[in-house]
Design brief:
222 residues, mainly alpha, two-stranded antiparallel ribbon, 10 helices, 2 strands
Length: 222
């Protein structure tokens, strides 16, 4: 169906920048649905702020829960595009945009793996899976797939994620990773865990959640 006239086929491409951010917040349960009000200032790297001709002293990243409002409420500084959104092909607001450019570079993957909001979403998703996904890893994997991709995983996919969890748990047990720091961002802080989970579970699932949030099927219009 090269002309896309039938329902059996459609173009497959990555969702828009704002949609990707909102999806990560919605899947993780962090999204804050308040409507209206002033723009929400997002976190940006210090070197982006230093690059301005006049340093924007007012630029203070929003705190929770305003930090997790929908991207449509994000504060925009025209001469300083948000690097995360720009990497995902959001327009820079200098002029009208009739059609967005679609790029495919490693920078996009690095952004959705490492940018603060996406890391926080992965941590929150891990806790949501542990709290709501069931008592064992198999049921949690099924729940995670439903949240991220709106379907149950295949047997092969379940085994792949199960193996990924095992590898991450081994890295934590061997001392390569600090479980508390991975799960919360602070080495002396414990995440709010259910009775059937421990910090090692939270850390392993945080790393796994990062992978699930970055799967093509999660981020692309299929």
């Amino acid at each position: 169906d090269p002309s896309n006239r039938l329902l059996t086929r459609g173009p497959r491409f990555r969702a828009d920048a704002e949609v990707i951010r909102d999806m990560a917040l919605a899947i993780s349960g962090l999204i804050h649905q308040r409507m209206g009000g002033p723009g929400v200032i997002p976190p940006v790297p210090r070197n982006v702020l230093d690059y301005n001709f006049v340093y924007p002293k007012y630029w203070k990243a929003a705190e929770v829960p305003e930090r997790y409002r929908r991207t449509v409420y994000g504060f925009r500084k025209r001469s300083m595009p948000d690097p995360a959104m720009s990497t995902l092909d959001a327009p820079n607001a200098d002029l009208s945009c009739a059609q967005r450019v679609r790029s495919n570079t490693p920078l996009a993957a690095l952004t959705t793996l490492n940018e603060p909001i996406f890391v926080e979403a992965a941590r929150a998703l891990a806790l949501r899976i542990l709290q709501e996904g069931g008592p064992d890893d198999v049921s949690r994997i099924h729940y995670a797939y439903v949240l991220c991709m709106a379907r149950k995983p295949t047997e092969s996919e379940t085994q792949t994620v199960f193996n990924l969890l095992a590898v991450q748990r081994q890295r934590i047990a061997d001392g390569w990773l600090n479980a508390r720091e991975v799960a919360t961002g602070q080495s002396d802080k414990l995440p709010p865990l259910p009775d059937n989970a421990n910090p090692q579970d939270a850390a392993a699932w945080t790393l796994t959640a990062r992978a699930l949030l970055n799967l093509d099927e999660t981020m692309n219009k299929n």
